[in-house]
Specification:
16% helix; six-stranded antiparallel beta barrel; Thrombin, subunit H; alpha+beta; elongated
Protein backbone atom coordinates (compact mmCIF):
# COMPACT_ATOMS: atom_id res chain seq x y z
CA UNK A 1 0.00 0.00 0.00
CA UNK A 2 1.02 3.60 -0.52
CA UNK A 3 2.31 6.12 1.98
CA UNK A 4 1.60 5.37 5.64
CA UNK A 5 0.39 1.84 5.03
CA UNK A 6 3.20 0.59 2.81
CA UNK A 7 4.41 -1.60 5.67
CA UNK A 8 1.03 -3.23 6.22
CA UNK A 9 1.94 -6.52 4.48
CA UNK A 10 3.60 -8.59 7.14
CA UNK A 11 2.77 -11.66 9.21
CA UNK A 12 0.64 -11.23 12.37
CA UNK A 13 2.53 -12.42 15.42
CA UNK A 14 -0.50 -14.22 16.85
CA UNK A 15 -1.26 -17.83 15.91
CA UNK A 16 -3.72 -18.62 13.13
CA UNK A 17 -7.37 -18.82 14.21
CA UNK A 18 -9.23 -21.40 12.16
CA UNK A 19 -11.77 -22.01 14.89
CA UNK A 20 -12.40 -21.95 18.62
CA UNK A 21 -10.94 -24.25 21.20
CA UNK A 22 -11.21 -24.22 24.96
CA UNK A 23 -7.62 -25.46 25.17
CA UNK A 24 -6.20 -22.74 22.89
CA UNK A 25 -8.41 -19.67 23.12
CA UNK A 26 -7.65 -17.01 20.49
CA UNK A 27 -5.37 -14.23 21.58
CA UNK A 28 -6.50 -10.58 21.20
CA UNK A 29 -4.85 -8.86 18.23
CA UNK A 30 -1.97 -6.53 18.92
CA UNK A 31 -0.87 -3.30 17.33
CA UNK A 32 1.72 -3.56 14.62
CA UNK A 33 2.19 -4.88 11.14
CA UNK A 34 -0.26 -7.51 9.95
CA UNK A 35 -0.71 -9.74 6.93
CA UNK A 36 -3.94 -9.18 5.04
CA UNK A 37 -6.20 -11.46 3.06
CA UNK A 38 -7.90 -9.87 0.08
CA UNK A 39 -11.61 -10.33 -0.53
CA UNK A 40 -10.86 -12.14 -3.79
CA UNK A 41 -9.15 -14.90 -1.77
CA UNK A 42 -12.19 -15.60 0.41
CA UNK A 43 -14.55 -18.51 -0.17
CA UNK A 44 -17.96 -19.37 1.31
CA UNK A 45 -17.69 -21.45 4.46
CA UNK A 46 -14.34 -20.06 5.58
CA UNK A 47 -14.24 -19.51 9.33
CA UNK A 48 -12.49 -16.82 11.30
CA UNK A 49 -12.81 -14.55 14.28
CA UNK A 50 -13.84 -10.94 14.88
CA UNK A 51 -12.94 -8.84 17.90
CA UNK A 52 -15.10 -6.28 19.68
CA UNK A 53 -15.73 -5.01 23.23
CA UNK A 54 -18.95 -6.18 24.92
CA UNK A 55 -18.14 -4.78 28.38
CA UNK A 56 -15.26 -2.78 29.79
CA UNK A 57 -12.25 -2.16 27.57
CA UNK A 58 -11.05 -5.63 26.55
CA UNK A 59 -12.18 -6.96 23.15
CA UNK A 60 -13.70 -10.44 22.99
CA UNK A 61 -13.66 -12.95 20.12
CA UNK A 62 -16.70 -13.63 17.92
CA UNK A 63 -16.86 -16.63 15.55
CA UNK A 64 -17.30 -15.57 11.91
CA UNK A 65 -18.36 -17.67 8.93
CA UNK A 66 -17.99 -16.23 5.44
CA UNK A 67 -21.17 -16.39 3.34
CA UNK A 68 -19.71 -14.89 0.18
CA UNK A 69 -18.96 -11.69 -1.73
CA UNK A 70 -21.68 -9.17 -2.51
CA UNK A 71 -20.35 -7.74 -5.74
CA UNK A 72 -20.00 -3.99 -6.41
CA UNK A 73 -22.04 -2.96 -3.37
CA UNK A 74 -19.66 -0.14 -2.31
CA UNK A 75 -19.28 0.95 -5.93
CA UNK A 76 -17.58 -0.27 -9.11
CA UNK A 77 -15.16 -3.09 -8.23
CA UNK A 78 -15.81 -2.53 -4.54
CA UNK A 79 -17.28 -5.66 -3.00
CA UNK A 80 -18.73 -6.31 0.44
CA UNK A 81 -17.98 -9.53 2.31
CA UNK A 82 -21.15 -11.13 3.74
CA UNK A 83 -20.70 -13.14 6.93
CA UNK A 84 -22.60 -14.62 9.85
CA UNK A 85 -21.53 -13.96 13.43
CA UNK A 86 -21.69 -16.46 16.27
CA UNK A 87 -21.01 -16.43 20.00
CA UNK A 88 -22.31 -13.45 21.93
CA UNK A 89 -23.20 -11.66 18.69
CA UNK A 90 -25.98 -14.21 18.11
CA UNK A 91 -27.68 -12.78 21.19
CA UNK A 92 -26.83 -9.08 20.75
CA UNK A 93 -27.10 -9.05 16.96
CA UNK A 94 -24.90 -6.62 14.98
CA UNK A 95 -24.95 -3.67 17.37
CA UNK A 96 -24.30 0.01 16.93
CA UNK A 97 -20.71 0.63 17.96
CA UNK A 98 -19.41 -2.60 16.41
CA UNK A 99 -18.45 -0.66 13.27
CA UNK A 100 -14.80 -1.39 12.57
CA UNK A 101 -14.55 -4.67 14.51
CA UNK A 102 -11.63 -6.44 12.79
CA UNK A 103 -12.20 -9.83 11.14
CA UNK A 104 -9.32 -12.30 10.80
CA UNK A 105 -9.26 -15.39 8.57
CA UNK A 106 -6.41 -17.79 9.36
CA UNK A 107 -4.67 -14.99 11.25
CA UNK A 108 -4.87 -12.58 8.31
CA UNK A 109 -6.86 -9.34 8.50
CA UNK A 110 -9.82 -9.49 6.11
CA UNK A 111 -11.64 -6.27 6.95
CA UNK A 112 -14.04 -4.52 9.30
CA UNK A 113 -17.61 -5.34 10.30
CA UNK A 114 -19.46 -2.33 8.90
CA UNK A 115 -22.99 -3.22 7.74
CA UNK A 116 -26.03 -5.01 9.08
CA UNK A 117 -29.41 -6.07 7.77
CA UNK A 118 -31.62 -3.00 8.00
CA UNK A 119 -34.26 -4.12 10.57
CA UNK A 120 -35.62 -7.17 12.38
CA UNK A 121 -32.92 -9.62 11.42
CA UNK A 122 -33.22 -12.96 13.28
CA UNK A 123 -29.62 -13.77 12.38
CA UNK A 124 -26.45 -11.81 13.09
CA UNK A 125 -25.68 -11.24 9.40
CA UNK A 126 -23.10 -8.52 8.75
CA UNK A 127 -21.31 -6.86 5.87
CA UNK A 128 -17.51 -6.60 6.10
CA UNK A 129 -15.60 -3.79 4.38
CA UNK A 130 -12.49 -5.36 2.82
CA UNK A 131 -9.27 -4.16 4.40
CA UNK A 132 -7.80 -3.27 0.99
CA UNK A 133 -10.49 -0.57 0.62
CA UNK A 134 -9.77 0.82 4.08
CA UNK A 135 -6.03 0.95 3.46
CA UNK A 136 -6.70 3.28 0.53
CA UNK A 137 -8.15 5.98 2.77
CA UNK A 138 -4.99 7.99 3.17
CA UNK A 139 -4.21 7.77 -0.54
CA UNK A 140 -7.06 10.19 -1.30
CA UNK A 141 -6.56 13.91 -1.79
CA UNK A 142 -7.78 16.73 0.45
CA UNK A 143 -11.07 17.19 -1.39
CA UNK A 144 -14.36 17.11 0.48
CA UNK A 145 -16.94 14.50 -0.56
CA UNK A 146 -20.25 15.79 -1.90
CA UNK A 147 -22.14 13.30 0.29
CA UNK A 148 -20.86 14.76 3.57
CA UNK A 149 -23.38 14.46 6.39
CA UNK A 150 -23.72 17.97 7.78
CA UNK A 151 -26.66 19.77 9.46
CA UNK A 152 -27.56 21.72 6.33
CA UNK A 153 -28.19 18.42 4.49
CA UNK A 154 -30.97 17.56 6.95
CA UNK A 155 -33.07 20.63 6.14
CA UNK A 156 -36.27 20.05 4.22
CA UNK A 157 -37.48 22.30 1.42
CA UNK A 158 -40.33 23.60 3.58
CA UNK A 159 -38.61 25.50 6.32
CA UNK A 160 -40.27 27.42 9.10
CA UNK A 161 -39.78 31.20 8.94
CA UNK A 162 -37.57 31.75 11.99
CA UNK A 163 -34.62 34.09 12.66
CA UNK A 164 -31.91 31.58 11.88
CA UNK A 165 -31.31 29.15 9.04
CA UNK A 166 -29.87 26.65 11.48
CA UNK A 167 -32.93 26.96 13.68
CA UNK A 168 -35.16 26.36 10.67
CA UNK A 169 -33.32 23.11 10.02
CA UNK A 170 -33.98 21.88 13.55
CA UNK A 171 -37.64 22.83 13.26
CA UNK A 172 -38.10 21.15 9.90
CA UNK A 173 -36.34 17.99 11.06
CA UNK A 174 -38.51 17.82 14.17
CA UNK A 175 -41.70 18.45 12.21
CA UNK A 176 -40.90 15.59 9.84
CA UNK A 177 -39.83 12.84 12.16
CA UNK A 178 -40.51 9.97 9.74
CA UNK A 179 -37.48 8.49 8.08
CA UNK A 180 -37.55 7.71 4.32
CA UNK A 181 -39.82 4.80 3.52
CA UNK A 182 -37.35 3.05 1.20
CA UNK A 183 -34.80 1.25 3.36
CA UNK A 184 -31.93 -0.65 1.71
CA UNK A 185 -31.39 -4.30 2.57
CA UNK A 186 -27.95 -3.66 4.09
CA UNK A 187 -27.15 -0.43 5.89
CA UNK A 188 -24.03 0.90 7.63
CA UNK A 189 -24.09 0.02 11.31
CA UNK A 190 -25.29 2.91 13.46
CA UNK A 191 -22.53 5.08 14.86
CA UNK A 192 -24.01 5.93 18.26
CA UNK A 193 -23.49 9.63 18.93
CA UNK A 194 -23.14 9.71 22.69
CA UNK A 195 -24.27 12.82 24.55
CA UNK A 196 -22.83 13.19 28.06
CA UNK A 197 -23.91 16.06 30.28
CA UNK A 198 -26.93 16.85 28.10
CA UNK A 199 -30.48 17.20 29.34
CA UNK A 200 -33.22 14.92 28.05
CA UNK A 201 -35.17 17.76 26.44
CA UNK A 202 -32.09 18.70 24.36
CA UNK A 203 -32.06 15.28 22.69
CA UNK A 204 -35.81 15.54 22.16
CA UNK A 205 -35.37 18.86 20.35
CA UNK A 206 -32.25 18.04 18.33
CA UNK A 207 -32.48 14.24 17.98
CA UNK A 208 -34.70 14.25 14.85
CA UNK A 209 -32.08 16.17 12.88
CA UNK A 210 -29.41 13.58 13.74
CA UNK A 211 -31.81 10.79 12.79
CA UNK A 212 -32.27 12.36 9.37
CA UNK A 213 -28.50 12.27 8.95
CA UNK A 214 -28.53 8.55 9.77
CA UNK A 215 -26.97 9.12 13.20
CA UNK A 216 -28.45 7.62 16.37
CA UNK A 217 -28.24 10.08 19.29
CA UNK A 218 -28.09 8.44 22.73
CA UNK A 219 -27.44 9.63 26.25
CA UNK A 220 -24.20 8.34 27.69
CA UNK A 221 -21.29 9.40 29.81
CA UNK A 222 -17.64 10.32 29.94
CA UNK A 223 -15.13 9.13 32.51
CA UNK A 224 -13.94 12.66 33.30
CA UNK A 225 -14.22 16.12 31.71
CA UNK A 226 -11.60 16.60 28.99
CA UNK A 227 -10.76 20.31 28.92
CA UNK A 228 -7.91 19.87 26.46
CA UNK A 229 -7.40 18.01 23.18
CA UNK A 230 -3.83 17.14 24.18
CA UNK A 231 -3.30 13.34 24.00
CA UNK A 232 -3.06 11.40 27.26
CA UNK A 233 0.32 10.14 28.42
CA UNK A 234 -0.41 6.52 27.42
CA UNK A 235 -1.38 7.30 23.83
CA UNK A 236 1.37 5.08 22.40
CA UNK A 237 -0.22 1.94 23.90
CA UNK A 238 -3.79 2.87 22.98
CA UNK A 239 -6.40 1.70 20.46
CA UNK A 240 -5.42 -1.85 19.69
CA UNK A 241 -7.52 -3.61 17.02
CA UNK A 242 -10.90 -4.42 18.55
CA UNK A 243 -10.75 -1.58 21.09
CA UNK A 244 -13.37 1.14 21.39
CA UNK A 245 -12.55 4.38 19.52
CA UNK A 246 -14.50 7.63 19.38
CA UNK A 247 -14.45 10.83 17.36
CA UNK A 248 -14.94 13.84 19.65
CA UNK A 249 -17.23 16.71 18.63
CA UNK A 250 -17.53 18.34 22.07
CA UNK A 251 -15.47 17.69 25.22
CA UNK A 252 -15.45 19.12 28.71
CA UNK A 253 -18.40 19.69 31.04
CA UNK A 254 -20.55 18.31 28.23
CA UNK A 255 -19.39 15.98 25.50
CA UNK A 256 -20.53 14.52 22.17
CA UNK A 257 -18.64 11.53 20.80
CA UNK A 258 -19.19 9.08 17.94
CA UNK A 259 -18.47 5.48 18.94
CA UNK A 260 -16.93 2.69 16.88
CA UNK A 261 -14.21 0.03 16.90
CA UNK A 262 -10.56 0.00 15.82
CA UNK A 263 -9.84 -2.16 12.77
CA UNK A 264 -6.12 -1.59 12.27
CA UNK A 265 -3.21 -0.07 14.19
CA UNK A 266 0.28 -0.07 12.69
CA UNK A 267 1.72 1.55 15.83
CA UNK A 268 0.77 5.09 14.90
CA UNK A 269 -2.00 5.15 12.30
CA UNK A 270 -5.50 3.96 13.11
CA UNK A 271 -8.23 2.69 10.78
CA UNK A 272 -11.75 2.23 12.12
CA UNK A 273 -15.52 2.07 11.41
CA UNK A 274 -15.36 0.53 7.91
CA UNK A 275 -17.87 3.18 6.79
CA UNK A 276 -17.96 6.99 7.06
CA UNK A 277 -18.52 8.88 10.29
CA UNK A 278 -19.83 12.07 8.62
CA UNK A 279 -17.98 11.54 5.31
CA UNK A 280 -16.31 14.94 5.73
CA UNK A 281 -13.09 14.03 3.95
CA UNK A 282 -10.05 15.69 5.57
CA UNK A 283 -10.78 16.54 9.21
CA UNK A 284 -8.97 17.56 12.36
CA UNK A 285 -11.01 15.94 15.13
CA UNK A 286 -9.87 14.62 18.53
CA UNK A 287 -9.82 10.83 18.82
CA UNK A 288 -10.43 9.12 22.16
CA UNK A 289 -10.54 5.72 23.83
CA UNK A 290 -13.73 4.37 25.37
CA UNK A 291 -15.26 1.77 27.66
CA UNK A 292 -18.45 -0.23 27.09
CA UNK A 293 -21.01 -0.53 29.87
CA UNK A 294 -23.26 -3.05 28.12
CA UNK A 295 -24.64 -4.08 24.74
CA UNK A 296 -28.40 -3.78 24.32
CA UNK A 297 -29.66 -6.87 22.50
CA UNK A 298 -32.34 -6.24 19.90
CA UNK A 299 -33.46 -7.48 16.49
CA UNK A 300 -34.47 -3.89 15.67
CA UNK A 301 -31.80 -1.50 16.97
CA UNK A 302 -29.09 -3.10 19.12
CA UNK A 303 -26.54 -0.65 20.53
CA UNK A 304 -23.52 -0.42 22.75
CA UNK A 305 -23.82 1.80 25.84
CA UNK A 306 -20.41 3.32 26.39
CA UNK A 307 -18.38 6.15 27.87
CA UNK A 308 -15.69 8.11 26.07
CA UNK A 309 -12.42 8.30 28.01
CA UNK A 310 -9.00 9.86 27.34
CA UNK A 311 -8.10 11.62 24.11
CA UNK A 312 -5.14 9.84 22.49
CA UNK A 313 -4.82 11.37 19.02
CA UNK A 314 -6.62 13.00 16.13
CA UNK A 315 -8.73 11.86 13.19
CA UNK A 316 -7.50 13.19 9.84
CA UNK A 317 -9.67 11.40 7.27
CA UNK A 318 -13.39 10.59 7.25
CA UNK A 319 -14.06 8.70 4.03
CA UNK A 320 -16.36 6.27 2.26
CA UNK A 321 -14.65 3.13 3.61
CA UNK A 322 -13.74 4.31 7.11
CA UNK A 323 -11.88 6.83 9.24
CA UNK A 324 -8.16 7.29 9.73
CA UNK A 325 -6.46 8.79 12.76
CA UNK A 326 -2.94 9.33 14.07
CA UNK A 327 -1.99 8.52 17.65
CA UNK A 328 -0.29 11.36 19.51
CA UNK A 329 -1.59 14.14 17.22
CA UNK A 330 -3.46 17.05 18.77
CA UNK A 331 -6.52 18.39 17.00
CA UNK A 332 -7.40 22.06 17.30
CA UNK A 333 -10.66 22.75 19.13
CA UNK A 334 -12.45 25.96 20.11
CA UNK A 335 -12.48 26.62 23.89
CA UNK A 336 -15.85 27.92 25.10
CA UNK A 337 -16.92 29.26 28.50
CA UNK A 338 -20.57 29.84 29.35
CA UNK A 339 -21.83 31.56 32.51
CA UNK A 340 -25.56 31.15 33.17
CA UNK A 341 -26.93 33.45 35.87
CA UNK A 342 -30.35 33.56 37.49
CA UNK A 343 -31.38 37.18 38.12
CA UNK A 344 -33.76 38.10 40.95
CA UNK A 345 -36.48 40.75 41.00
CA UNK A 346 -34.03 43.39 42.26
CA UNK A 347 -31.52 42.58 39.45
CA UNK A 348 -29.24 40.73 41.87
CA UNK A 349 -27.56 37.45 40.86
CA UNK A 350 -29.34 34.66 42.74
CA UNK A 351 -27.22 31.80 41.40
CA UNK A 352 -24.64 31.13 38.72
CA UNK A 353 -23.41 28.07 36.84
CA UNK A 354 -20.20 28.09 34.81
CA UNK A 355 -19.46 25.63 32.02
CA UNK A 356 -16.24 24.95 30.13
CA UNK A 357 -16.02 22.83 27.01
CA UNK A 358 -14.32 22.56 23.62
CA UNK A 359 -16.03 22.44 20.22
CA UNK A 360 -14.95 20.67 17.02
CA UNK A 361 -13.74 23.24 14.47
CA UNK A 362 -15.42 22.57 11.11
CA UNK A 363 -17.25 24.82 8.67
CA UNK A 364 -20.65 23.11 8.73
CA UNK A 365 -20.64 21.54 12.20
CA UNK A 366 -19.25 24.32 14.42
CA UNK A 367 -22.26 26.69 14.12
CA UNK A 368 -24.66 23.85 14.89
CA UNK A 369 -22.61 22.62 17.86
CA UNK A 370 -22.42 26.16 19.26
CA UNK A 371 -26.19 26.38 19.01
CA UNK A 372 -26.74 22.99 20.64
CA UNK A 373 -24.33 23.53 23.55
CA UNK A 374 -25.78 26.96 24.40
CA UNK A 375 -29.29 25.52 24.43
CA UNK A 376 -28.08 22.76 26.73
CA UNK A 377 -26.36 25.27 29.04
CA UNK A 378 -29.59 27.14 29.78
CA UNK A 379 -31.81 24.03 29.87
CA UNK A 380 -30.64 22.70 33.22
CA UNK A 381 -31.71 25.58 35.43
CA UNK A 382 -34.57 25.16 37.86
CA UNK A 383 -35.82 28.52 36.56
CA UNK A 384 -35.97 27.20 32.98
CA UNK A 385 -39.54 28.08 32.01
CA UNK A 386 -41.72 29.75 29.42
CA UNK A 387 -42.39 33.01 31.28
CA UNK A 388 -38.78 34.16 31.25
CA UNK A 389 -36.41 36.35 29.26
CA UNK A 390 -32.84 35.47 28.30
CA UNK A 391 -30.22 38.20 28.02
CA UNK A 392 -26.98 37.25 26.28
CA UNK A 393 -23.64 39.04 26.07
CA UNK A 394 -20.67 37.36 24.47
CA UNK A 395 -17.37 37.73 22.66
CA UNK A 396 -15.79 35.63 19.92
CA UNK A 397 -12.04 36.13 19.56
CA UNK A 398 -10.46 35.30 16.21
CA UNK A 399 -6.91 34.04 15.88
CA UNK A 400 -6.24 36.86 13.41
CA UNK A 401 -6.96 39.47 16.09
CA UNK A 402 -10.57 40.43 15.33
CA UNK A 403 -13.37 40.13 17.85
CA UNK A 404 -17.14 39.80 17.69
CA UNK A 405 -19.03 41.57 20.47
CA UNK A 406 -22.56 40.18 20.67
CA UNK A 407 -25.61 40.91 22.78
CA UNK A 408 -29.31 40.23 22.51
CA UNK A 409 -32.43 39.42 24.51
CA UNK A 410 -34.94 36.72 23.66
CA UNK A 411 -38.36 36.01 25.12
CA UNK A 412 -41.16 33.69 24.06
CA UNK A 413 -43.82 35.43 22.02
CA UNK A 414 -46.15 34.73 19.12
CA UNK A 415 -43.78 32.26 17.47
CA UNK A 416 -44.03 28.57 18.42
CA UNK A 417 -40.34 28.46 19.35
CA UNK A 418 -39.48 28.78 23.06
CA UNK A 419 -37.11 31.58 24.04
CA UNK A 420 -34.08 29.30 24.74
CA UNK A 421 -34.33 27.87 21.21
CA UNK A 422 -34.63 31.36 19.72
CA UNK A 423 -31.58 32.40 21.71
CA UNK A 424 -29.60 29.35 20.56
CA UNK A 425 -30.65 29.95 16.94
CA UNK A 426 -29.54 33.60 17.10
CA UNK A 427 -26.20 32.52 18.60
CA UNK A 428 -25.60 29.75 16.06
CA UNK A 429 -26.45 32.08 13.18
CA UNK A 430 -23.54 34.40 14.03
CA UNK A 431 -21.10 31.49 13.68
CA UNK A 432 -22.86 30.39 10.52
CA UNK A 433 -22.19 33.80 8.97
CA UNK A 434 -18.52 33.57 9.92
CA UNK A 435 -18.02 30.06 8.57
CA UNK A 436 -19.91 30.71 5.33
CA UNK A 437 -17.41 33.41 4.38
CA UNK A 438 -16.33 32.65 0.81
CA UNK A 439 -12.95 34.36 1.10
CA UNK A 440 -11.39 33.12 4.34
CA UNK A 441 -12.14 30.25 6.72
CA UNK A 442 -12.22 31.71 10.24
CA UNK A 443 -9.93 30.45 12.97
CA UNK A 444 -11.48 31.04 16.36
CA UNK A 445 -9.27 31.55 19.39
CA UNK A 446 -11.89 31.42 22.15
CA UNK A 447 -15.56 32.08 22.87
CA UNK A 448 -17.01 33.56 26.07
CA UNK A 449 -20.70 34.09 26.74
CA UNK A 450 -22.90 35.08 29.68
CA UNK A 451 -26.63 34.37 29.73
CA UNK A 452 -28.84 36.07 32.32
CA UNK A 453 -32.20 34.49 33.05
CA UNK A 454 -34.67 37.25 33.95
CA UNK A 455 -37.74 36.22 35.95
CA UNK A 456 -40.54 37.36 33.59
CA UNK A 457 -41.37 37.88 29.92
CA UNK A 458 -39.87 41.24 29.07
CA UNK A 459 -41.14 42.32 25.68
CA UNK A 460 -42.41 45.78 24.76
CA UNK A 461 -43.81 47.23 21.53
CA UNK A 462 -43.42 50.87 20.45
CA UNK A 463 -47.06 51.99 20.53
CA UNK A 464 -47.14 55.76 20.09
CA UNK A 465 -45.09 58.96 20.24
CA UNK A 466 -45.83 62.65 20.69
CA UNK A 467 -44.07 65.92 19.87
CA UNK A 468 -45.17 69.26 21.31
CA UNK A 469 -44.43 71.29 18.20
CA UNK A 470 -43.81 69.76 14.77
CA UNK A 471 -42.34 73.01 13.37
CA UNK A 472 -38.62 73.16 14.17
CA UNK A 473 -35.44 74.98 13.21
CA UNK A 474 -31.91 73.66 12.58
CA UNK A 475 -30.01 73.50 15.87
CA UNK A 476 -33.14 73.02 18.01
CA UNK A 477 -33.37 70.37 20.74
CA UNK A 478 -36.88 68.98 20.41
CA UNK A 479 -38.58 67.17 23.31
CA UNK A 480 -40.33 63.93 22.32
CA UNK A 481 -42.41 61.55 24.37
CA UNK A 482 -42.64 57.85 23.42
CA UNK A 483 -45.00 55.18 24.76
CA UNK A 484 -44.33 51.44 24.82
CA UNK A 485 -46.75 48.62 25.60
CA UNK A 486 -45.19 45.74 27.60
CA UNK A 487 -46.43 42.15 27.61
CA UNK A 488 -48.06 42.78 31.00
CA UNK A 489 -48.33 45.79 33.23
CA UNK A 490 -48.75 49.52 32.70
CA UNK A 491 -47.70 51.41 29.60
CA UNK A 492 -44.08 52.59 29.66
CA UNK A 493 -43.42 56.28 29.01
CA UNK A 494 -40.07 57.89 28.19
CA UNK A 495 -39.06 61.50 27.58
CA UNK A 496 -36.42 62.02 24.89
CA UNK A 497 -34.64 64.91 23.26
CA UNK A 498 -33.98 64.94 19.48
CA UNK A 499 -31.35 67.34 18.15
CA UNK A 500 -32.17 68.93 14.77
CA UNK A 501 -28.79 69.13 13.15
CA UNK A 502 -27.42 72.31 11.62
CA UNK A 503 -27.64 72.48 7.84
CA UNK A 504 -30.80 70.37 7.62
CA UNK A 505 -32.72 71.53 4.55
CA UNK A 506 -36.05 73.26 4.86
CA UNK A 507 -39.18 71.19 4.35
CA UNK A 508 -40.68 67.98 5.69
CA UNK A 509 -38.64 65.33 7.46
CA UNK A 510 -39.30 62.50 9.94
CA UNK A 511 -38.19 61.49 13.42
CA UNK A 512 -38.09 57.69 13.58
CA UNK A 513 -38.41 55.82 16.88
CA UNK A 514 -37.61 52.18 16.12
CA UNK A 515 -36.34 48.79 17.15
CA UNK A 516 -33.00 47.34 16.04
CA UNK A 517 -34.42 45.23 13.19
CA UNK A 518 -35.81 48.29 11.40
CA UNK A 519 -32.33 49.89 11.22
CA UNK A 520 -30.42 46.65 10.60
CA UNK A 521 -32.51 45.46 7.68
CA UNK A 522 -30.94 47.27 4.72
CA UNK A 523 -27.38 46.96 5.96
CA UNK A 524 -27.76 43.23 6.62
CA UNK A 525 -29.28 42.71 3.16
CA UNK A 526 -26.23 44.29 1.53
CA UNK A 527 -23.97 41.93 3.44
CA UNK A 528 -25.97 38.81 2.51
CA UNK A 529 -25.97 39.71 -1.19
CA UNK A 530 -22.21 40.14 -1.37
CA UNK A 531 -20.79 36.64 -1.79
CA UNK A 532 -17.17 37.84 -1.72
CA UNK A 533 -17.08 39.93 1.44
CA UNK A 534 -13.88 39.11 3.31
CA UNK A 535 -13.81 37.93 6.91
CA UNK A 536 -12.85 41.28 8.47
CA UNK A 537 -15.77 42.95 6.69
CA UNK A 538 -18.13 40.22 7.91
CA UNK A 539 -16.93 40.75 11.49
CA UNK A 540 -17.33 44.52 11.09
CA UNK A 541 -20.88 44.12 9.73
CA UNK A 542 -21.97 41.85 12.58
CA UNK A 543 -20.45 44.22 15.15
CA UNK A 544 -22.41 47.14 13.66
CA UNK A 545 -25.76 45.43 14.19
CA UNK A 546 -27.93 47.13 16.78
CA UNK A 547 -29.11 45.26 19.85
CA UNK A 548 -32.79 44.42 20.24
CA UNK A 549 -32.96 45.67 23.85
CA UNK A 550 -32.66 49.34 22.90
CA UNK A 551 -34.96 51.97 21.39
CA UNK A 552 -33.28 53.95 18.61
CA UNK A 553 -33.96 57.58 17.71
CA UNK A 554 -33.11 58.63 14.14
CA UNK A 555 -33.67 61.72 12.01
CA UNK A 556 -34.76 60.76 8.47
CA UNK A 557 -33.99 62.92 5.46
CA UNK A 558 -35.19 62.56 1.87
CA UNK A 559 -31.73 61.72 0.48
CA UNK A 560 -30.45 58.35 -0.79
CA UNK A 561 -28.29 56.04 1.32
CA UNK A 562 -25.97 53.44 -0.20
CA UNK A 563 -25.16 50.17 1.58
CA UNK A 564 -22.35 47.93 0.36
CA UNK A 565 -20.14 45.39 2.10
CA UNK A 566 -19.95 46.57 5.72
CA UNK A 567 -20.26 50.27 4.87
CA UNK A 568 -23.19 52.71 5.07
CA UNK A 569 -23.04 55.98 3.09
CA UNK A 570 -25.95 58.31 3.93
CA UNK A 571 -26.98 61.45 2.05
CA UNK A 572 -25.11 60.34 -1.06
CA UNK A 573 -25.29 62.60 -4.14
CA UNK A 574 -26.91 60.92 -7.14
CA UNK A 575 -23.87 61.58 -9.34
CA UNK A 576 -21.56 59.77 -6.90
CA UNK A 577 -23.99 56.88 -6.60
CA UNK A 578 -24.13 56.46 -10.39
CA UNK A 579 -20.34 56.30 -10.63
CA UNK A 580 -20.15 53.72 -7.83
CA UNK A 581 -22.81 51.50 -9.37
CA UNK A 582 -21.15 51.61 -12.77
CA UNK A 583 -17.87 50.34 -11.34
CA UNK A 584 -19.24 47.53 -9.14
CA UNK A 585 -19.28 43.87 -10.13
CA UNK A 586 -22.61 42.01 -10.11
CA UNK A 587 -21.34 39.87 -7.23
CA UNK A 588 -20.81 42.98 -5.06
CA UNK A 589 -24.10 44.88 -5.40
CA UNK A 590 -24.97 48.22 -3.84
CA UNK A 591 -28.28 48.41 -1.96
CA UNK A 592 -29.91 51.83 -1.88
CA UNK A 593 -32.64 53.45 0.19
CA UNK A 594 -34.56 56.62 -0.67
CA UNK A 595 -34.01 58.03 2.83
CA UNK A 596 -30.97 58.59 5.03
CA UNK A 597 -31.25 57.83 8.73
CA UNK A 598 -28.99 59.91 10.98
CA UNK A 599 -29.00 57.99 14.21
CA UNK A 600 -29.29 60.39 17.12
CA UNK A 601 -29.15 58.17 20.18
CA UNK A 602 -30.43 54.97 21.74
CA UNK A 603 -32.23 54.26 25.01
CA UNK A 604 -31.36 50.96 26.74
CA UNK A 605 -34.23 48.87 28.08
CA UNK A 606 -34.39 45.59 29.94
CA UNK A 607 -36.98 44.55 27.38
CA UNK A 608 -37.00 43.08 23.90
CA UNK A 609 -38.09 46.14 21.88
CA UNK A 610 -40.11 45.76 18.68
CA UNK A 611 -41.93 48.02 16.25
CA UNK A 612 -41.45 51.59 15.06
CA UNK A 613 -43.22 54.93 15.00
CA UNK A 614 -42.43 58.08 12.99
CA UNK A 615 -43.23 61.74 13.68
CA UNK A 616 -43.46 64.26 10.88
CA UNK A 617 -41.59 67.52 11.38
CA UNK A 618 -41.28 70.65 9.25
CA UNK A 619 -38.00 72.55 9.21
CA UNK A 620 -38.47 76.31 8.84
Amino acid sequence: MKRYFAAAISMLAAASLPGFSEELPPQPPKSGKVEIIRSSELRPGMKGVAWTVFQGTEPEPIPVEIIGLWKNQWGPRQDIILAKLGGKAQRTNVAGGMSGSPVYIDGKLAGAIALRLSVFSPDAICGITPIELMLEINDTDQSRPMEARTPDKAASHEQVAVPSELLAQVASAGASGNLPGQVPLMTPIDTPLIFAGFHENVLEEFGPLFERLGIHAVQGGASSPAYTAKPAADWKDSLRPGDVVAGVLVSGDMSITGLGTVTYNDGQHILAFGHPFFNLGPVDMPMSKGEVLMVLSSAFQPNKFANATEIVGALHQDRHSGIMGVLGDEAKMIPVTVAVRSIGDNDSVRSEKDFRFNVFDQQKWTPYLMMLTLFNSVSGLNEFRDEATYRLTGTVDLATGGRLSLNTMQASGEMPMPAPMLLAGWWGDKFNRLYLNAVTTPRLKQVNVTVDLLPDRRVATIENAWIANSEVRPGDDVPVKVFLRPYRGDRIERDLVVHIREGLSMGDHRILLSDAETLNHMQSMAGYLNRYMDLSETVSLINQERSNNKLYISLLEAAPTAYYDDKTMPNLPASVLNVMQAGRAASRPIITSSESAFEQSSVPFDYVISGSYSLKITVK
